[in-house]
Amino acid sequence: MDPISLEELALLDVLHRIDQGIELKHGDSEIRERMAASGLIEDDEQGLRLTPAGVELCKSLQHRVAADAAAEKVLQERASGDAAADGSTQEAVPG
Question: pTM for the whole thing?
């Protein structure tokens, strides 16, 4: 699986801001319109809010971010372990 894209991270950021009631930036109007057309948000007299589909997408993206972080940690641990194993192997070989 590919790591989460920058576009998906930006979408997650906008979903979080809407969910927390934080006013969107001026440049967010295009994504706001696309999200409303996609059924991810509702924009009415009560203001912006996530639809059930928007909530589910937000959860899914959060899981992807967490999975990417966990995978990166495992890769770093393996790299550290491989480096330590290479160092101990070299020391055991008579010189």
Answer: 0.73
